[in-house]
Amino acid sequence: MDQEHKKTKTMPASAGALPRPQNKGYSQSGASSTRRAMKGFLASSGAPHEDIHDNNPTLRQRARALYMDAPIATSAIKTNRTNVIGIGLIPKSRINRSVLGMTQEQADAWQDQTMQEFSLWANNKRACDAIGVNDFYGMQQLALSSWLISGDVFALVKRYPIKPLTPYSLRLHLIEADRVSTPVLGEISHIPLQTMGKSKDGNTIYDGVEVDKNGMIQAYHVRNTYPFEMTTETTEWVRVRAYGDRTELPNILHIMDSERPEQYRGVSYLAQVIEPILQLRRYTESELVAAIVESFFTAFVLTEGNGDDNPMNEVGGSQGEVSRDENEYEMGPGTVNFLKKGESVTFGDPKRPNSGFEMFTKAISEQIGAALEIPADLLLKSFTKSYSASRAALLESWKAFKMRRQWFVRDFCDPVYELWMDEAVARGRITAPGFFSDPVIRAAYLGCEWIGPSQGQLDPIKEINAEVAAIREGITTREQSTIRINGGQWDSNVERLMRENEKLAQANQLLGPAKEVLDNETGAEDDEKE
Q: What is the pLDDT of residues 228-278, one digit of tens each?
C-alpha cells in the first residue's frame, strides 16, 4: 500500500534542544566536549551545497595553481591521466548476438564495420571536436585532467552540417567547471555573488545545476565568460536541458564523482591535500634557495672611504651586474661587492644541504599519496624498494585507476558512443534492425568494451608465466590476459599471427631450392679445397 507522507515542522536544534549526554557512546571519545584534546576541535558541517558548492570556486583556483606550480600535484594528475586514459580508451564492440539472433561470423562482421565507422568520426578532430583541436582520444585525456583538477567537467552536445569527409553532425564541446554556474543579477569584479538560485519554473539551482522538487537534474546553466576573465563582454547564461524531450538523449555530459548524497557538483581531486602540497612546495623552494645561496662564492670588499672607488656599487663576477641600485648587494658565483665605510655583512650558518630533506619530503609524499590512492613510489616515480613492495604498490594504485576509468567510461565514453550510434543508424550508415523500437535490442547493439593502457610488468617473465598458468587452469582467458599484459586485442593478434605464419611458410618454400643450391655449392668448394 502507498503510505501518505506528512510534512512535520521541527524546532531548530538550538531552540529548546535537550542537553547532550556527556558519558554515553561516542560522547566519551570522538564526540567528547569535555576531553582536553577535543574541546578545541570545533567541526561544523552543513548541506552538500554549503560544504562543497560554496567552496568549489576557491578549491578550483588553488588546485589549478598547485598543478602549475607544485611538482607533486602535477605528478598526481598526470599519473592518473597516463594510467587511466593513456593514448586513449579504444572501443571494442561487444554486441549480444544471442539477443540479436546473429551467428558468430555475422556478429564479427557487424562489429568490424561499426568500429570502422566509429574511427571515421573519432580519429578526425574536425569531425568530433566542436572547436577542432583534439580527436576523440585527445578529448578523453583533456576531460579526465580537467575533471581531476576542477572537480568536474562538461561536454556540450552540438550538431554541425555534414560534409563529404565528415558524414556525422555530432560534435562535442568540452567546457570547464567554472562556466556552469548559477545565474546572478550582477557581478562585482567578475566574482559570482551566489551559488544557489531559483529558475523561472521554481526549480532550485545548485551552482549551475537545476533540479526539480524531487532532486532530479533538469538542466544546466552555462555562462559565456569565466568568473575571473578580464573581458568587456557582458556575462550571459544559457539554459541547457539535461536531456532531449523526444530522444531522451543527453544534451550535455557531466563527468564527476560524488562523495555525498544530493551532491550535484564535483570536488577537486586535490582538495584534501591542498595544504600539505602547498607547504611541501614552500619547504622545497626554501631548501633549494638556501642550497643555492650556500654554494655562492661572494666577496665583500671593505673600504676606508665612502665607496668613491666604486661609486655605483658595481658588481664584478661571471654573471654580470643585475642592479645598479647603490642600496642593493648581489650574490652569485664569483661576485665581488664593494661596501661603504661602516658597512658589514653577517651570514647565518644554514648548513645546507639538509640531510633530513629527502626523508621528510618522502614521508609527507607518502601521506599525500595515501589520500590520493597513489603510492609514494608511483607519485615520485622512484622505485627503490624490493620487487614485492614495488609490485604491491602498483597493484594497489591500479585498483583506483581501474575504478576511475570505469567512472569515466560511464559518464563520458558510453554516452558519446550511444549518441554516435544513434546518428549512424538513423543515417543508414549502420544497419541495426529494431534499434529504435526495442530498448532490449538497442542495449544489445550498444554493448562496447573500452580498452585502455595496461598495468605493465616489473618482471615480465614471472608475470607472463603466471598468466599462462591461470589460462591453463581456466582462471582467466587469453583475451583478458592480453588486455592486462599490454592492452592489446587477442582476436587481432591471432589474425595477424595467422598472416605472419602464412608469409613465413611461403618464404620458406621460396628459400628451399635456393638453400639447396647454396648448400651444394658450399659442398663443392669444400671438396676442391680437400
A: 788 888 889 999 999 999 889 999 999 999 999 999 999 999 999 999 999
**Quick one: which H or E segment has residue 146?**
helix 136-150
Range ranked top by mean pLDDT from 43-47, 190-194, 429-433: 429-433
| Cβ partners under 8 Å of residue 53, min gap 6 | 195, 196, 206, 207, 264, 265
Indicate the average pLDDT of the chain: 83
For residue 104, what are the CA distances in angstroms to 96, 110, 391, 446, 477?
10, 10, 39, 17, 18
Is the pTM value of this prediction over 0.85? no
Residue 510 CB partners (closer than 8 Å, separation 6+): none
Residue 283 is inside which H or E element, if any? helix 274-295
Q: How far apart are CA 380 and CA 68, in angstroms?
A: 17
Q: Concatenate the DSSP letters of all residues of 167-215 into one string.
A: ---EEEEEEEGGGB----S--BTTB-S-SEEE-TTS-EEETTEEE-TT-
- Residue 261: per-residue pLDDT: 93
Name which residue leads in pLDDT, 25 or 57.
57
d(CA 195, CA 211): 14
